[in-house]
Amino acid sequence: MSYGWQYCVIQEKGKRKRRRKETNPHKSNPSFPKLLLSLFLVLLLLLTISFFTAFMIFFQKYSQLLKEKKTIKELTHTELECMKENLTMEGSPISLYTSLLDLLLLHPKDLGLLYWSCCPKAWKSFSSNCYFISTTRRNWTESERNCLEMKAHLLVIHTKDEQDFIFQNLDINSAYYIGLSDPKGTRDWQWVDQTPYSESVTFWHSGEPNNPDEGCVMLNFRYISRKWGWNDVACNGRHKSLCKMMKIHL
Ligand SMILES: [Ca+2]
């Protein structure tokens, strides 16, 4: 009789062990967290691959679109003079990645720097722009129209360096219209490309602007001061002019 009782106790212990195994699989299977981690890593890897693939496809499509757009722009100017410009992106792969992303999202036009930067033949190259000296004398409105026909504007000056570069290429006995005017006659100077007019970047001759009836601006050289500078003049006077456009990127 006592053997039967012991058998029952052993049987009950066996059942309890089996029940513990069934209700607590984590304790009984130590490889479960590793499996979960592996699955998570695989998923992360797949997501990363998908993201980079999508990014590369988008990047290639965008570059192609940009090239096509530039090719259309080239048709205006049949002959170009080009320089190879390399975009330098030094540092870690992360900085390379952020530079590309920055270019793509914030400065898409600058993507062209990865290729060739060109100016039409007979135009001068400085920084990221091209400049044309038109020696035909026209009034201010006709001068701007002439620049527009070449996909440019009358000169808009952003820095002293730019202005100094322009002066080096001009004839001191001539005057040249630039893209600054006062269309309302209220001394509210406006650049043709809507660049805000800043008093801190002006190069007026001493005593200029001097006449509310003179609504257009030209560059000329004054022998007394031995300097180039700006002078407001009547818009119907006929002068040479300066055009400016952004470099064409191929
Ligand atoms: Ca004047």
TrEMBL record:
<dbReference type="Pfam" id="PF00059">
    <property type="entry name" value="Lectin_C"/>
</dbReference>
<keyword id="KW-0399">Innate immunity</keyword>
<dbReference type="GO" id="GO:0005886">
    <property type="term" value="C:plasma membrane"/>
</dbReference>
<keyword id="KW-1003">Cell membrane</keyword>
<keyword id="KW-0106">Calcium</keyword>
<keyword id="KW-1064">Adaptive immunity</keyword>
<keyword id="KW-0325">Glycoprotein</keyword>
<dbReference type="GO" id="GO:0005537">
    <property type="term" value="F:D-mannose binding"/>
</dbReference>
<dbReference type="InterPro" id="IPR016187">
    <property type="entry name" value="CTDL_fold"/>
</dbReference>
<feature type="domain" description="C-type lectin">
    <location>
        <begin position="126"/>
        <end position="244"/>
    </location>
</feature>
<protein>
    <submittedName>
        <fullName>C-type lectin domain family 4 member A</fullName>
    </submittedName>
</protein>
<feature type="transmembrane region" description="Helical">
    <location>
        <begin position="35"/>
        <end position="59"/>
    </location>
</feature>
<dbReference type="GO" id="GO:0002250">
    <property type="term" value="P:adaptive immune response"/>
</dbReference>
<dbReference type="GO" id="GO:0036037">
    <property type="term" value="P:CD8-positive, alpha-beta T cell activation"/>
</dbReference>
<dbReference type="GO" id="GO:0032720">
    <property type="term" value="P:negative regulation of tumor necrosis factor production"/>
</dbReference>
<keyword id="KW-0472">Membrane</keyword>
<dbReference type="InterPro" id="IPR018378">
    <property type="entry name" value="C-type_lectin_CS"/>
</dbReference>
<dbReference type="GO" id="GO:0045087">
    <property type="term" value="P:innate immune response"/>
</dbReference>
<dbReference type="InterPro" id="IPR001304">
    <property type="entry name" value="C-type_lectin-like"/>
</dbReference>
<dbReference type="InterPro" id="IPR033989">
    <property type="entry name" value="CD209-like_CTLD"/>
</dbReference>
<dbReference type="GO" id="GO:0005509">
    <property type="term" value="F:calcium ion binding"/>
</dbReference>
<keyword id="KW-0430">Lectin</keyword>
<keyword id="KW-0812">Transmembrane</keyword>
<dbReference type="InterPro" id="IPR016186">
    <property type="entry name" value="C-type_lectin-like/link_sf"/>
</dbReference>
<keyword id="KW-0479">Metal-binding</keyword>
<dbReference type="GO" id="GO:0002470">
    <property type="term" value="P:plasmacytoid dendritic cell antigen processing and presentation"/>
</dbReference>
<keyword id="KW-1133">Transmembrane helix</keyword>
<dbReference type="InterPro" id="IPR050111">
    <property type="entry name" value="C-type_lectin/snaclec_domain"/>
</dbReference>
<dbReference type="GO" id="GO:0042590">
    <property type="term" value="P:antigen processing and presentation of exogenous peptide antigen via MHC class I"/>
</dbReference>
<keyword id="KW-0735">Signal-anchor</keyword>
<keyword id="KW-1015">Disulfide bond</keyword>
<keyword id="KW-0391">Immunity</keyword>
